[in-house]
Design goal:
Elements: E1 2-3, E2 6-14, H1 18-28, E3 31-34, E4 44-45, H2 50-70, E5 83-85, H3 86-89, H4 92-129, E6 147-155, H5 160-170, E7 174-181, E8 185-193, H6 197-205, E9 210-211, H7 221-247, H8 253-273, E10 277-278, E11 282-290, H9 294-301, E12 306-311, E13 322-323, E14 325-326, H10 335-341, H11 352-367, H12 370-386, H13 391-414, H14 421-430, H15 450-478, H16 482-503, E15 508-509, E16 512-513, H17 514-528, H18 533-558, H19 560-581, H20 591-632, E17 638-639, E18 651-653
Parallel strand pairs: 5-18, 13-17
Antiparallel strand pairs: 1-14, 2-11, 2-12, 3-11, 4-10, 6-8, 6-9, 7-8, 10-11, 15-16
Helix pairs in contact: 1-9, 2-4, 2-8, 4-7, 4-8, 5-6, 11-13, 11-19, 11-20, 12-13, 15-16, 15-18, 15-19, 15-20, 16-17, 17-18, 19-20
Length: about 650
Amino acid sequence: MAIVKMKKLQLMVIRTQKEDLLRDLQLLGCVSVIEPETNELQLKRDAGGVTEARAAYAKLTGALSLLDKYAPVKKKLLQARPEVTEKTFLDDHVLAETLKAAEEMETLESEARRFTSEEAKLRSTVESLTPWATLDLPLDCAETARAAVTLGTLPATIDFNEVQRALADEVPEAELFPVSEDKTARYLVLVCLKEKQPEALKVLRAFGFAISGVAGKSGTARENITSSEAGIESVVRRRADIEKQIAAYAPRREDIKLCIDRMSVEIQKAEASERFVGTDSVVCMNGWLTAPDEDALRAVCEKYDCWWELTDPAPEEYPDVPVKLKNNALTNPLNMVTNMYSLPAYGTVDPNPLMAAFFIVFYGIMMADMGYGLLMIIASLVVKKLAKPKRGGKIFIDLLLEGGIATFIMGIVTGGFFGDLIPTLYKMFTGNPMGDNFLTKPLLNPLGQTELVLYGAMGLGVVHLFTGMIINMVEKIRNGDLKSAVFEEGSWFVIFAGLALFVFKKGNVAGIPVVLVIGALMLIYGAAYPAKGIGGKAVAVLAAIYNGVTGWLGDILSYSRLMALMLAGSVVAQVFNNLATMPQGAGRVTVLSFLLFIVIFLLGHALNFALNLLGCFVHDLRLQCLEFFGKFYQDGGKPFQPLEINTRYVDVENHL
């Protein structure tokens, strides 16, 4: 239950064995390959094939998207990932066949897109020709021996009679023939003497006349529409055939998913390969190894012609050392909290074992309802049983389970079961209030003992903060900074002890609280000794007193949120229970009133549960990250990202 110790790894291997070694390191999953520190010998970098691997990955993901589009399957809500053997996962024949299928699907999709584009063009043609469908005149008939024929449109808002009068006055040798009209335009044919066409167009343009783009097509509009509609039918039919061909690859869906995972692993391996440098015969790498896996690495390296060396990182290298947290089943879910904040710096303390009890207890205090706790426990157990989540999903579900257990236990203490559901139902069906029991008279009544809840929350806050300070003192002593530990953190312990003695009128000498005075003097000395000059020491002392007093006051008051959220959840739950009983009124329970009770109850508690589930987590997270971590935590750790088999669709049985 600490930060895993890291070893610095340097390795050289025969070039021909590089790929096999990388594969075994990936299966081992405990080595992180890093950039070479120096390249003074001007060794050439290796080409890992990242571009090719990413292209294959994109091709496979595209193929899966096509199957989801043309051959969708209903996904189960909770379903465990299938397990495959290492041999199946690394089968190059399956990968080659699947990539070939993906390329064929890509080609078919390209053809389908071409048909879609052609269909859109034909439909556009039909749409543009439809207003001219009644015109029994070839569209390419632009003139006769003496006359010019022009197809065009006028805005629908223009008075057609006014246009005709203007045209008759200016160009009597011209005539407009209406064809059709819609909400936006009027479709017309202009016939006039050839030599009068420019004058006629000039008159019409003043009214917004525009020459139609359909002119010039051979045949009538109806003939063109019929031809285009036939073309649309043909294109749609041919595209449907293409889509059926794509859907026929549905039996390859699982192979495609497996190969997507395979290529994601290959990308990671190729990226690591590009960090190697070497000559034509030998390659070198630098990396980090988790120290507990030294024997496993030795077993792998002994299979190859290689040299390797492990060294402990020097303290000045700690900022570059990656961090991996190792915790037990109880504290491991708290990695989610730590990762959301920041990993601890290498060489410092892992906060998860120290934070776990506080986080879980605080969550239970804020939620504090047996019903909500049962929902969380049941949901987490069902997901663990059916979906068998891994990695981050498992951490979240485990944290939900621990929070649910704490919520259920605190619900027993406060007597909450979906608020006051059981007493409410009892009164609904009997007309009398329920007698005394742990539900009606719990060990702790949040609504009736508000002050006690508040004092308890603040007391827990003091313990929480003191724990952080003790951790910081221990770390300072381990690092040889005894003076700082005694006169900074230690002075506050003496001050609080002096305050307690002063309140209970103990330890006073001639009315002077000796212990409190000693603590104050320790605080003053601890603030003054690092500062320089009289002015600097005075400022440091004043700042220490002000920041200490206001900081402690603010920190302790922050824990009042434990009481606030407990009360809020309890009150809202009871309000919804009361609302659910309102349809009954003063009469007896009826089928309708009970059905309405169930509906209001479910909706209200679903909302309350969702808000509390998130709100309690956020406020609990704040107490840990701001109040607790602020006392001792050193963040800034870099996550350990080993070369490993990290998959999305399948789980690989590792037999290395």
